[in-house]
Design brief:
heterodimer; A: mainly alpha; ABC transporter involved in vitamin B12 uptake, BtuC; two-stranded antiparallel ribbon; 2 strands; B: alpha/beta; Rossmann fold; 17 helices; binds adenosine-5'-triphosphate; binds magnesium ion
Chain lengths: 329, 514
Amino acid sequence: MTAQSLSRPLSSGQMPPARLLRIGATLLLIVAVGLFAAMAPGFATASNLADVAEQSTVLALLAFGMTLVVIAGGPDVVRGGIDLSLGANLGLCDALYAAMSNAGHGDGTSALVAVGAGAAVGLVNAVAIIRFGVPPLLATLASMNACAGLELVVTQNTVLTTDSPLLGIVAGPGALGLSTTDWILVAMTAALLLVMHATPVGLRLRAVGLHPRAARAAGLPVAAMGAGAYVAAGTLAGLAAIVQAARLSGSSPGSGDILLSVVLTSLLGVVFSRRLQPTIGGTLAAVLFIGCLVNGFQLVNVSSYWVNGIEGVLILSVVALRSLLQRPG
Amino acid sequence: MNDQAGEAALSLQGLVKRFGATRALDGASLVVRRGSLHGLIGQNGAGKSTIVKILNGLLQPDSGSIAIDGRQVVDASPRLIERLGVHIIHQEPMLVPGFTVAEALFLGDEPRLGAGRSPVVSWRTMRRCAEEAIASRFGLALRGDTPLDQLGAAERQIVQITRSLLKAPRVLVFDEPTASLVRSEANRLFAIIRRLREEGAAVLYVSHYLEEVRDLCDTVTVLRNGRDVATLDPARTSVAGMAALMVDRDLGAMFPTRSSLPGAPLLEARGLGRSGAFADLSFTLRAGEILGLTGLVGSGAKELVAALFGLAPADRGTLLLHGRAVMPASPSEAVGLGIGLVPEDRRRNGVALDASVAENATLPGLVRFVRRFLLDRGREQEAVRGLIARLAIKTPGPDAPVGALSGGNQQKVSLAKWLGTGATLFLLDEPTVAVDVAAKVEIYRLLADLAAGGAGILLLSSDLAELRGLADRILVMHRGRLVAELRAADATADEILTAASGGAAGSAPDGIAA
Ligand SMILES: Nc1ncnc2c1ncn2[C@@H]1O[C@H](COP(=O)(O)OP(=O)(O)OP(=O)(O)O)[C@@H](O)[C@H]1O
Ligand SMILES: [Mg+2]
């Protein structure tokens, strides 16, 4: 018997709206950038765009971490993977680095402590969520509070100013007229894209998030992979802290405020992916989109409060759109 | 390999598993020998899938032991079991939503670039291997990058089976593999299973198709209420005998005798078509009639049912319901017109797994229980109890979540959901898939009652015995067209299959099991 013809989908449901959404979002991004290019003098220059990337690096690293956690924990906004502690973790690691550095420790030790602290917070989240089954929303809310508290203990709620060779390098110029921070963004993006798309890790992480029972039946270490995502996210927060320390020349209170942007960009990134799923590439696009928005508004002298408002509206519309698209029938 | 034939490849002893008050397994034992095909049968909820899940390490037994190739297995996990060469095709789909065919086939064992263990996946090799693996085993041309959500139930099942076959299994466990396959695909699967046996594999085969079990298996174990009550030689036992052992009583006639004559036309299709799915369909369904409908994958029969229910409306032709021109553009419109659908893929469309049996069973008919804006819980409960009793749904109670029921009992809830609506036209898509014989008899009687009460029933099925035993007439579709209309009373299985596979005279593919 020859190959049978296939039944095509009954309701070609999911795909066309998804594609529409992706094209729409990309168009919006292009329009926004185009508008700023036309209205804001100096927006479309190479140096300004490099600045946007530089200003976006901290957010990007955190959003990458969030993306990993969402992929491995599943897309359900309430019960799925989420790490609310990323912003406070950033603040804590930044403070630790500054304090260590000011106490006379070398760059190696200070950086190791900062990144190690980030990873440790991730591990605590992982143990609470994977081992003890605490809902991610609650577990990371608690560790967010703990991190914010610890940061206050370290800094006494003051600005810590530091300078160190490492920070000098990170904030300084690098190859091709880009800053080292720009290159960190490029390198981390490339590394994560490689891991997630060239190796089996991305595929397996998606399986763990979307259908844990199937992943288990396929012999994947589901718990370890879920835990790994939280630890990776914490480590990324530690790395981001060093970039943050370089940008602020130390640590200052309030870095936890970045959380909303992290949640937004990881949600928004979904609309830039082909299957409406969280991806590193999509998250990067979302981060740069928000970066352009902030930068463009600054250049045309619109208050940055507007940006907060727009971010809120974007979160709501993305979540609403996604729920609409995922509703069966 | 054959020097090992006859040794116990898989031995389960005294398995006990409780879920709260439910005893899913109550001391079940089972030995599968190398080079043999071992059938496992039992009513819905008898504990078959629970055995499979314990074997796989997805569930831990409360007591009892598992031995593979004579070695005791403690702390079974899916990984350990796979390493021992045991591969399982689960009843519930273990396919990740959003994955492509190739990704689903190779998850956890992705082909790498270069020779051997490089960390880099070769997506191209993966797609090619996936296409070849499916084409060579099932003769199905499926693109490796097709998302799973675009596949039908049969195609998804084929993907799942191929996944296990890729791993050169030594022990293979099937939990109702043919439930969503049409005959020709099922026959390919049987050929593959027999070949695996020749090669010395041991196969445990769970199914509700007793004829299939009789023709395929060397030994059959009957499970009742979580205990193995008999192990028999199918060559010396009749299907009726097996059924009687399963339910512990005599079932009597499989199909009800139907006496009523079809009445006035209820549904008339004239030149109905939908581009890319089916074309030029004309037929009449009378009140009180059960009209059978069948066809291979891609025949357009499923699409026709979808069109009648407003899921993917027809774009040509006319449809008359009670003589009035209608064309439901959405399921809610169809329900409003008195049309009910029992979908095949119950996990996706049929029932809400988190909701209770009661909520599921009364959802479409909820309006009937609303009295002055308030839900009349008392009446709802009463109606639900009636349905549970009528369909013999095995559940701890009306409030148990449907997800905790066995596969066949979930299917019954999905049926109950629609049979309670008081619709006049019922569209049934493989209503008895995964349902045990006793429940089948019950469902057939229910359908006959509905017809006798004046309802029209369109029965889409690939179970030929069911079509011949229950329907008045059978419509056969091939490549989107109606190719035959047969009187069920004198249609032979050969006739139906020949028409379904394109009318080419001669025998049906692969020597169909009767
Ligand atoms: N997760 C669970 N929680 C509670 N009860 C369960 C659970 N899984 C199974 N059961 C119960 O255990 C019993 C055996 O279920 P099982 O799935 O093994 O039946 P089965 O023989 O495979 O039936 P079917 O032919 O319908 O697939 C059923 O009564 C079922 O309701
Ligand atoms: Mg079962």
